[in-house]
Amino acid sequence: MKKTIPLFFLSVFYLNFSAQDIQHDSLKHSNIQEVIVIGTKDISQKQSKPLSSIDEYLEQSANINMLKRGAYAWEPILNNMPTERTLVTIDGMRIFGACTDKMDPVTSYVEVSNLSRAEISSGQSGSSHGSTIGGSIDLVREKSTFGDEKFRFGLNSGFESVSLQKIFGSSASYRNTKFYTDLNFMNRDAENYKAGNGEEIRFSQYRKFNISGISGVKIGKNKLLEASVIYDKANDVGYPALPMDVSLAEALITSLKFQYLPKNKFISDWETKIYFNTITHRMDDTKRPSVPIHMDMPGWSKTAGYFSKLQTTLNQHHFNLNLNGFYNQSVAEMTMYPTNPTENLMFMYTWPDVRTFNQGIFLEDHFQLDDFSEFTFSASLSYHSNKVQSDFGLNSLQIFYPEMKVQNNRILKSVSANYSRNQFGFEYGIGVGYGDRAPSVSEGYGFYLFNSSENYDYIGNPNLKNESSLEANAYLSLKKTNFFGKISSSYFHISNYIVGKVNPNFAPMTIGAKGVKLYSALDYATIFNISLDAEIKVLPELKWTSQVVYSRGKDFENVNLPFISPISYLSKILFEKNKFNAEVSVNGNLKHSSYASVYGEKPVSDYVLLNANLGYKFDFGHSKIFTKLGVENLLDRNYTTYADWNRIPRPGRNFFVNINYNF
Question: SS3 for 381?
Answer without folding.
Answer: strand
